[in-house]
Specification:
The protein is α/β, with parallel strands linked by helices. The chain contains eleven helices and 22 strands. It has helices at about 15-25, 40-45, 50-65, 80-105, 180-190, 210-220, 310-325, 375, 405-420, 425, 440-450, and strands spanning about 5, 10, 30-35, 110, 115-120, 120-125, 130, 135-140, 155-160, 170-175, 195-200, 225, 235, 240-245, 250, 255, 295-300, 340, 345-350, 360-370, 385-390, 395-405. It has a five-stranded parallel β-sheet with strand order 4-3-2-8-17, covered by helices on one side. Helix 1 (about 15-25) links the parallel strand 2 (about 10) and strand 3. The radius of gyration is 24 Å and the shape is globular. The model has no long low-confidence stretch (mean pLDDT about 95).
């Protein structure tokens, strides 16, 4: 048995943990990175990258299928085994790249083990060692949750951690969960020829505001049924699972459970850490410092379940690592404008602050992409964007959208909000013709008109109506 005494112990070698360790070491602290497997990040192994690989294959199939609108006669022939082989091959390459970065860490910094608290500031490892650090960063990530009713059909259940291991595409999949991951995978599978249906107990898609959720739902429902306010009951059948809900039932070869990824905190014995926990057992923390109460303990990434996306995990790891290294000299960080993108087609996004229906002193402008020139040219003229600004000066607050090129429009809006720009100031920026970005002008002009703000552009200044 050995007792390690680093300045900072980081539990978890995902995106947040790797970033926290690097930042703590750069700040001059001695570090110990603890992980049971060092498999690679969630993004590379079971999240962002394999899902986008599947979506890319689906995009290729849909491009062929949709060529008829341009006078091109074609139909896709989908080789499911080849699709999944490419997904795994490139997924493994991304994961290997992360593992190479881990192997390049200086000697003595990483240790393969599971950690748990035995007292405030004290850790025990399952290899028999102990760790007595000055500060701890919890970055254990999250894990898929399988609701109890699905345990008895578990051999037919897929999660984001098992879907990409399939050697071929299934014939049919019932998707339980209409969050970003569930919708992305459902649409990709449907475009690859899989019979799909989506179920969710909520009344909106992907956490979107009501109008944007409704618009996205109308588009996606052309390809597969979506049952909101629905909690299906599973039952095993000879060749799959039968899902029964109010109003119907259907049988599927597999069920993809995408009902959330709660923080992976089991086994940490947080009760022995002396930390205040919320009703779900997650430590209470300050998002400006990532500190848990007043203890020399910090939590970052999916483990805190605040904003479970990679760029936020990296930002939180940076804050946590620096503050852990400098504890007790804790510094608050100014967080970036929040942005969440769902990579459906069209992509959906929520940026900044989207006010509720009771909000006052807010100006809202909207553009319908059904009549946007470039979207019509591309055969993708569906969707909308709603932009919100502060009444009085027109300063942008937030936006929600489901629109062609949505992931790129979301970045432009996030940058404008981050820069503190007003609607009229954004309208003074260059807009090239014909582009999807021009669609934002309509919403920005509406804000200026409602707020009686001076601006250099009017609808009459557009090149031609409808373009």
């Amino acid at each position: 048995m050995q007792t390690h005494r680093p300045d900072v112990a980081v539990i978890g070698a995902g995106t947040a943990g790797l970033t926290a360790e690097r930042q703590a070491r750069r700040a001059g602290a001695s570090t110990l990175l603890i992980d049971p497997a060092f498999r690679g990040t969630t993004c590379a192994t079971v999240g962002c990258m394999p899902s986008k690989l599947l979506i890319a294959a689906a995009d290729a199939a849909e491009a062929v299928r949709g060529a008829a609108v341009f006078g091109i006669d074609a139909a896709p022939r989908i080789d499911g085994a080849a699709v999944m082989a490419r997904v795994r091959r490139m997924r493994d390459d991304f994961a290997a790249s992360v593992r190479r970065n881990i192997s390049d860490l200086p000697d003595g910094i990483s240790i393969e083990a599971r950690a748990r608290f035995t007292a405030p500031g004290m850790l025990a490892l399952d290899n028999g060692d102990c760790v007595a650090p000055r500060a701890v960063v919890i970055a254990t990530g999250a894990a898929p949750a399988i609701p109890p009713p699905y345990e008895h059909v578990r051999d037919r259940v897929l999660t984001n951690e098992s879907l990409f291991e399939l050697s071929d595409l299934p014939a049919s999949v019932g998707v339980v969960g209409a969050g970003p991951l569930g919708l992305e995978l459902a649409q990709a599978l449907a475009r690859l020829g899989v019979r799909v249906a989506v179920f969710d107990a909520a009344d909106r898609l992907a956490g979107l505001p009501e109008e944007t959720s409704a618009a996205l739902g109308r588009i996606l429902s052309d390809s597969f049924p979506i049952h909101l306010n629905s909690t299906p009951e599973p039952a095993a059948v000879s060749d799959g699972v039968r899902l029964t809900w109010d109003g119907g039932s259907a049988e599927f070869e597999r069920v993809l459970v995408a009902a959330g990824r709660p923080p992976d905190l089991d086994g940490l014995a947080l009760g022995d850490a002396g930390l205040a926990l919320d009703e779900n057992g997650t430590p209470l923390f300050d998002p400006a410092t990532m500190q848990c109460g007043t203890a020399p303990v910090f939590i970052a990434g999916d483990a805190n379940h605040a904003q479970p996306v990679l760029h936020e995990a990296s930002a939180e790891g940076t804050i946590a690592g620096r503050n852990a290294a400098n504890w007790p000299d804790i510094r608050k960080a100014e967080r970036k404008v929040p942005m969440a993108v769902t990579f459906t087609r069209p992509a959906a996004a929520v940026i900044g602050t989207t006010p509720g229906p009771e909000a006052r002193d807010v100006l809202t402008g909207c553009v319908d992409f059904a009549d946007q020139g470039r979207a019509r040219v591309m055969g993708r003229a569906r969707g909308l964007c709603r932009i919100h600004a502060r009444a009085g000066d027109g300063r942008l607050l937030g936006a929600s959208l489901c629109a062609p090129g949505g992931e790129h429009l979301a970045h432009l809006l996030a940058w404008a909000i981050q820069a503190g720009m007003t609607a009229d100031e954004v309208l003074e920026m260059p807009f090239y013709h014909p582009t999807l970005e021009e669609g934002l002008k309509t919403a920005l002009q509406e804000i200026c008109h409602k707020g009686k703000l001076a601006h250099p552009w009017s609808r009459d200044d557009d090149p031609l109506p409808g373009m």
